[in-house]
Amino acid sequence: MQSALLMLVAGLALASGVRGDDAPGTTAHLAEIFVGRCFDKSTVADCNAWWAAFNQVVADVDPLSVTAASFDPYFAIANFSTPVDKAMFWSGSQYYVHQLSDAGLRYFTMEDTVGGFVQNGLHWCGSSSGYNYTSCPPGFRNTTTDTWYGAELAFWQHASTTFARQATGRVSVLLGSPYGGSAYRNSSFFALYELPNMNTSLVTAIDVYVITNGTERCGSGSLVALVQDIKHHLGLTPSCYDNPDMVRFILCENNGAPSAQCQFANEFSESSDLPADKAVPLALGCLLGGAILVIAVQQILLLRKKQASSQPMRQPLMGYGA
Ligand SMILES: *[C@@H]1O[C@H](CO)[C@@H](O)[C@H](O)[C@H]1NC(C)=O
Ligand SMILES: *[C@@H]1O[C@H](CO)[C@@H](O)[C@H](O)[C@H]1NC(C)=O
Ligand SMILES: *[C@@H]1O[C@H](CO)[C@@H](O)[C@H](O)[C@H]1NC(C)=O
Ligand SMILES: *[C@@H]1O[C@H](CO)[C@@H](O)[C@H](O)[C@H]1NC(C)=O
Ligand SMILES: *[C@@H]1O[C@H](CO)[C@@H](O)[C@H](O)[C@H]1NC(C)=O
Ligand SMILES: *[C@@H]1O[C@H](CO)[C@@H](O)[C@H](O)[C@H]1NC(C)=O
Fold first, then answer.
1. Is residue 70 domain-resident?
2. Do 208 and 241 form a contact (C-beta atoms < 8 A)?
3. pLDDT tens track for 258-316
4. Where is the signal peptide (predicted)?
5. What predicted TM-score, i.e. pTM, was given to this entire model?
């Protein structure tokens, strides 16, 4: 369990940069990636016009002068509709949430929307001549106006707000605490721009999934404040689940049946009743992956037995019942 947790934490830490905690320079070939992603997977009719709308806001501009409102033309072009009952918000769980959402098939995160996915993982900021490929200023939030300055964070503020406004039906949030802090942080984009912008007449229920690190669990720490905030904003009482099976299934599926992650998945199984349409495909996928691995391991062991019996034995064979 210890190593599973450490891997979990390492994965989360690695993936934590996308919302602009650090400030790398503009991604090389930004225009080509943007337009390519748009042509490949979006419903946007004119990808070059969409790029132009983005480029006009960011290029040749002081990044710290760019705010969320600057991206209105970009988001007017992006189709942001999210299937009913599939919107999934996240905080501190980026590495897992996108495996879980499966590019919008299982759940729909902001990064699965047309407006979000063309930008996911990319970095950019303007300079006096086009883009700054060396580094970008980190950006800051004016707490009086509740506005982010700095191109990238301003963009994600707009994307988060837009995504939250149109989430409909049963929505969910996957919370992790990669650095051992609170799962629900009042400085997170989820707390600042997503929960407050959900529409009470559209959202009918909310499920909270917590990837615990042994400290905060549903009903403790910051998750108490979360329940209060959800009641306050939406008038709903959320359902809360610690270490939901679906997250353990993904760990298991990615790492294979004999791995520590699968033991973690078995040993720490707590009942968390997922809607059947989500839980069953996941469980089947994990079982199938596990079965294939078991067969593969058996084949390897058989092969090793054959080799061992056809060669002079240099070491005693241990543990295979040979
Ligand atoms: C937006 O996307 C959804 C789902 O892909 C689609 O049903 C809808 O027609 C699209 N709307 C527009 C205006 O393109
Ligand atoms: C790029 O950004 C860094 C950090 O904000 C800044 O020091 C540098 O002058 C910028 N370079 C250009 C070419 O604008
Ligand atoms: C925040 O915005 C207010 C209102 O526009 C402005 O008066 C104030 O100087 C800003 N603060 C910072 C730190 O930029
Ligand atoms: C869990 O959180 C605690 C305190 O919040 C922190 O000290 C600890 O390092 C975290 N453990 C892991 C494995 O993330
Ligand atoms: C955020 O949480 C911290 C720590 O609990 C608290 O001190 C602070 O007042 C909170 N800020 C807001 C804006 O709620
Ligand atoms: C909430 O959704 C309803 C129904 O679509 C809409 O009429 C209303 O304007 C929305 N409220 C906000 C604050 O966006």
1. yes
2. yes
3. 555 565 545 544 444 444 455 445 555 555 555 555 555 455 444 444 443 333 332 22
4. 1-20
5. 0.74
The residue range of the domain holding 36 is 1-78+113-163
Nearest atom of ligand 4 to the alpha carbon of 182? 5
Q: Provide φ and ψ at 315, rounded to 5°.
A: -130, 145
Atom 7 of ligand 1, nearest CA residue? 81
67-117 residue pLDDT tens: 999 999 999 998 778 899 999 998 887 777 777 777 777 788 888 888 888
Ligand 6 pocket, 202 CB below 6 A?
A: yes
Nearest CA, atom 6, ligand 3: 144
- Does residue 200 form part of some domain? no
Task: Concatenate the DSSP letters of all residues of 234-263 into one string.
Answer: HS-PPEEEES-HHHHHHHHHHH-TTSHHHH
Residue list, ligand 4 pocket, CB within 6 Å: 5, 9, 180-181, 213, 215
CA distance 322 to 308: 10
68 inside domain: yes
- Count how many domains the chain has: 1
Report the alpha-carbon distance of residue 123 to residue 109 in Å, rounded: 19
- Whether residue 130 is contained in a domain is answered as yes
Closest C-alpha residue for ligand 2 atom 7? 135
Residues 33, 107: Cα–Cα separation, whole Å = 24
Nearest ligand, CA of residue 6? 4
Is residue 1 within 8 A of residue 267, CB to CB? The reply is yes
Q: Report CA(56)–ligand 2 centroid distance (Å).
A: 19
List ligand 1's pocket residues with C-beta within 6 A.
Answer: 43, 79, 81
Distance of CA 210 from the midpoint of ligand 2 (Å): 39
Give ligand 3 pocket residues (Cβ under 6 A). Answer: 142, 144-145
Tell me how many degrees the CA angle 264-286-281 measures, rounded to the nearest 5.
Answer: 125
